[in-house]
Specification:
CATH architecture of the largest domain: Orthogonal Bundle
Shape: elongated
CATH class of the largest domain: Mainly Alpha
Structural class: alpha+beta
Number of domains: 2
Largest sheet: 3 strands, antiparallel
CATH topology of the largest domain: Arc Repressor Mutant, subunit A
Radius of gyration: 19 Å
Strand order of the largest sheet: 5-7-6
CATH superfamily of the largest domain: Winged helix-like DNA-binding domain superfamily/Winged helix DNA-binding domain
Number of helices: 7
Number of strands: 7
């Protein structure tokens, strides 16, 4: 890095040529993006812009992730596990079975009707159906916002019964 704290990057391939200087965070995100498809163990770039590899760092457990997000209802726990699969495990899509397995690993109680709760999550826009044949889902941007905001009371009140309409 030079005096201006910029990192020089170059990308070449398939008719694309780019060369320029970017800040540390952007460089980390570029590296993360380039490597994530080839290496599913790759973790997202951290706040300091350096991509971290799961195999070289300690992973957050499902129980720790649940504790950090403090879900209150069954649907909140499902969304929390979906967020865990996306953010910690690095999965873009997931199945109900994977959510169930990670809830058990965290020794959390399973929702009484997982299928109904997934329908609710889809109707609420927190989760969407990915590949219907493989019964896969993915967390939406709305779902990630709900998760990052910690399930605020006003959201809980607004969302009660929404999926039943």
């Amino acid at each position: 890095m030079g005096k201006n704290n910029k990192i020089k990057i170059s990308i070449k391939g398939l008719g694309l040529v780019y060369s320029g200087e970017v800040d540390k965070l952007t460089a980390g995100k570029v590296i993360d993006l380039c490597l994530s498809a080839a290496n599913p163990e790759m973790k997202h770039a951290s706040d300091n812009g350096i991509a971290e590899n799961h195999s070289n760092s300690i992973k957050e457990s499902p129980a720790e992730y649940i504790e950090r997000h403090a879900p209150r209802r069954g649907i909140d726990r499902i969304l929390t596990m979906a967020g865990y699969l996306k953010e910690v495990v690095g999965k873009i899509s997931f199945t109900q079975s994977e959510v169930r397995s990670h809830l058990r690993e965290a020794q959390e109680s399973l929702p009484a009707n997982l299928t109904r709760d997934f329908r609710w999550l889809v109707k609420s826009g927190w989760v969407a159906i990915g590949d219907k044949k493989k019964k896969q889902y993915y967390v939406t941007n709305t779902g990630l916002r709900v998760l990052s905001n910690g399930f605020p009371d006003d959201l809980i009140k607004k969302s009660r019964g929404k999926a039943n309409k």
